[in-house]
Amino acid sequence: MRPDIPNPRKDSFPLTRMQDLAESERLIIDIYRRWIAGMRSNDDRHWSVVWTELSGFLGMKSARAILGGLQSVIAGIGSSSRRPLQLHPPCCGFVCPDELLVINLVGACQRRNYALARSTAEWMVSSKGRASLLEGGRRIADALTEREILLPERVSQKTKTDHRSFTAFDTDIVKPQLRAIAGGRREAGVA
To answer: What are the sequence ranges of the domains in the chain?
Structure first.
């Protein structure tokens, strides 16, 4: 593993417990995890649980809007992720920084903080997936706002001043350096 990117297996990512998050944040992480688990295992029981949770908590109209947004988020990440993103299993009591970034994206869209939403999307995906990721985050945010469910603001000002690291939920994440192969050698910062 490259030294400039934190290694989650060596506890360089401080984990946050699910119980420390707001109910709306836990819901978003839970449906994200379960939807991915259903995709990986091709098991529609995960999708059924997601639909039951969402429609029971928010109603059918909001559930449809959130699932549409979730599909866009997953499509953006799946096709254009800058690096492999970490994701815990559905029933895990911990949250990793990559899952927090999804919440950060939705929260930024909800507060109409477009600079933060865009920088979060740029952080997660290449330019090809950015529109899909932002659209998905906006759709989820709009559905939550319509139901008067507001995500807490958990981002510090560090995102505006330091381009090498990104702070979300008081967790510093080192921004991955893009590398290009030039003449058979790796060169940092070559676009």
So the answer is: 14-153
- pLDDT tens digits, one per residue of 139-166: 999 999 999 999 998 755 343 334 444 5
Between the alpha carbon of residue 140 and those of residues 134, 147, 180, the distances in Å are 10, 11, 34
* Element (DSSP H or E) covering residue 17: strand 16-17
Q: What is the pTM of this model?
A: 0.75
Rounded distance, CA 55 to CA 159, Å?
35
Helix axes 97-110, 127-146, angle to 10 degrees: 60
Burial of 84 (0-12, 13-18, 19+ CB in 10 A): exposed
Max Cα separation, the chain?
A: 57
Name the pairing type of β-strands 94-95 and 179-182: unpaired
